[in-house]
Specification:
This protein has 501 residues and is of the alpha+beta class. The chain is built from 13 helices and 17 strands. Among the domains are: 123 residues, Uridine Diphospho-n-acetylenolpyruvylglucosamine Reductase, domain 3; 132 residues, Alpha-Beta Plaits (2-Layer Sandwich), CATH 3.30.70. The longest helix has 20 residues. Bound molecules: flavin-adenine dinucleotide. Flavin-adenine dinucleotide (FAD) binds next to β3, α4 and β9. Flavin-adenine dinucleotide binds next to β3, α4 and β9.
Length: 501
């Protein structure tokens, strides 16, 4: 049975339900089961009492509603952070089977302690976030397995009627691991229903980890003027299509976004856009890819820089030398943050990206950052943008036009998902008061609506915008809703999440 100490209400529930948004509701009931059996019991009670529950893994979906459900009527949260076992690890193939409470930080520690040659799939959200929660939201990261749901090889979930679902190639039994070696299994691909769907409570997942390559490098390029955007994007497209695997992904960051990310007073080379990317492979692959990068991006960039561990050690020695004469404090800051970013690309989780959420606040804690706990206001707009120059320009114009109307910076980043698509993340940062929140939501609504009219559709929605996602008369959303009603006729699991309620 669930023990009373793992049912949180009042202030204790408020702490768990902190969000990067303003909320009137303060009466959540948070259940914290310890294992799959307790999840089943909680769902059975919910079904009997016809009370909907919203499952979260660590509930740190910052900027998308954190642990909040999409519908106001859902009051009970099924918080799975206590299911935190790494159930199985195949050290030869890099297949790891884990529970929802396992975070990036926990997996990184486990891999390090076991001397494993595999990388933790890191994201900008940092060490305290769940691997399963992020994969189920189809989150993106910074290592070669950047598409986190693509790395899912098998799923175990408790269905609304209490049955245990397992991927079709998993052998049957209570302690199955791994849950599959082959993503697509056989028959209709049902694992997909659990990602951005509310068809069950996922209690285990098997992920394929990327092997740590001999070399990891980062590269940076500077686009001096804003009118260089189209040419740079077209060059990035050509580079990704021709170089393939060794390039992990490219981010193109606007000056407005960079200003929110770096500390006041930091001295960085001025540019309208700054590009960053990661290179993976052995020495010869990396050297060959460096050449492709230089030849393709050189003509459109003010400057290109490659950074690896050896160069960083040299920079650290220089910084040490300069600081012994009291010189270049900003160099120290630069060397440290570049080292941290390189670490993230190598699969070492870090909080390096989280200070962005604190841009409207005076102080950023030195460690253990948690934007929801610390009262930061943030909503993410995250549409997919075709990876070509004219589309990037049209999208950026839309962002500038709408953000400036509501007093937000068009702090756009373009992140390559493939050689044909970017995901753009645009943070709306505000004071999490009723006024700030309502301004951000109005701006978000306009971005979503006008973005759709121009062909830019979010790949992921925040809890408060979920109704926007499913409001179109498309057959797609009708079918998603029909399927959900078949599996969960009483609407027990997260009603309104990526289906019409
Ligand atoms: C500065 C900053 C940078 C960020 N960078 C990134 C980034 O690089 N990439 C990225 O993807 N995100 C990023 N985020 C967004 C977000 O914080 C992460 O995606 C985070 O990993 C999601 O929270 P979580 O892992 O705790 O998932 P949760 O909040 O636990 O889960 C997310 C949702 O998935 C569903 N779900 C979760 N677990 C289960 C389960 N076991 N069964 C059924 N349904 C479930 C629920 O609907 C839940 O609301 C960033 C946020 C900030 C503030």
């Amino acid at each position: 049975m669930l023990l009373p100490m793992y049912v949180l209400t009042g202030d204790a529930a408020d702490v768990v339900m902190a969000d990067t948004d303003w909320h009137a509701r303060r009466d959540y009931i948070v259940l914290k089961p310890a294992n799959r059996n307790e999840v089943r019991i909680a769902l059975a009670i919910a079904a009997e009492m016809r009370v909907p529950v919203h499952p979260v893994s660590t509930g740190r979906n910052w900027g998308y509603g954190s642990g909040h459900p999409p519908e106001r009527g859902t009051q009970v949260i099924l918080h799975l952070a206590r299911l935190d076992r790494i159930v199985d690890f195949d050290s030869q193939k890099g297949l790891v089977t884990l529970e929802p409470g396992v975070t990036q930080g926990m997996l990184a520690k486990f891999l390090e302690c076991n001397g494993a040659r595999f990388m933790t799939p890191t994201t900008g959200a940092g060490p305290s976030c769940s691997l399963i929660g992020n994969a189920l939201e189809r989150g993106y990261g910074l290592t070669p397995c950047a598409d986190h749901f693509a790395a899912v090889m098998g799923i175990e979930a408790v269905l609304p009627d209490g049955q245990i679902y397992r991927s079709p190639l998993a052998t049957w039994g209570d302690d199955v691991a791994p849950l599959g070696h082959y993503k697509w299994g056989c028959g209709p691909y049902l694992d997909g229903l659990f990602s951005q769907g509310a068809f069950g409570v996922v209690t285990r997942m098997t992920l394929a980890l990327a092997r740590r390559p001999a070399r990891v490098e980062s590269f940076y390029f500077w686009i001096g003027q804003d009118d260089g955007l189209e040419a740079a994007v077209d060059r990035i497209q050509d580079l990704l299509a021709s170089a393939g695997g060794p390039i992990g992904g490219i981010n193109l960051v606007s000056a407005e976004r960079l200003n929110l990310m770096v500390k006041q007073g930091s001295k960085l080379p001025r540019a309208a856009w700054i590009g960053t990317g990661a290179l993976y492979g052995d020495r010869s692959q990396v050297l060959a890819t460096r050449k492709s990068i230089t030849s393709r991006l050189g003509p459109v960039s003010k400057k290109i820089m490659f950074l690896n561990r050896a160069r960083l050690r040299l920079a650290e020695r220089l910084e040490h030398f300069a600081s012994s004469f009291g010189l270049a404090p900003s160099l120290r800051q630069l060397v440290r943050s570049t080292a941290e970013i390189l670490g993230v690309l190598e699969g070492k989780p870090s909080e390096f990206a989280l200070p962005l959420a604190y841009a409207a606040r005076m102080e950023v804690p030195a460690h253990d950052l948690d934007p929801a706990r610390d009262g930061c206001g943030l909503l993410w707009y995250a549409p997919v943008v075709p990876l070509d120059g004219p589309a990037a320009r049209r999208y950026y114009r839309l962002a500038v036009r709408i953000c400036s109307r509501y007093g937000f910076k068009p702090a756009v980043t373009f992140s390559s998902l493939s050689p044909i698509a970017f995901d753009s993340t645009l943070p709306l940062i505000f004071e999490p008061t009723q006024e700030g929140s309502s301004r951000a939501h109005t701006c978000m609504k306009e971005l979503i609506q006008q973005g759709k009219e121009e062909g830019f559709f979010p790949y992921r929605y925040g809890a408060a915008s979920m109704a926007e996602a499913v409001s179109s008369p498309d057959v797609f959303w009708r079918l998603a809703t029909d399927l959900k009603r078949t599996v969960d006729p009483n609407g027990i699991i997260s009603p309104g999440r990526y289906h019409r309620s």
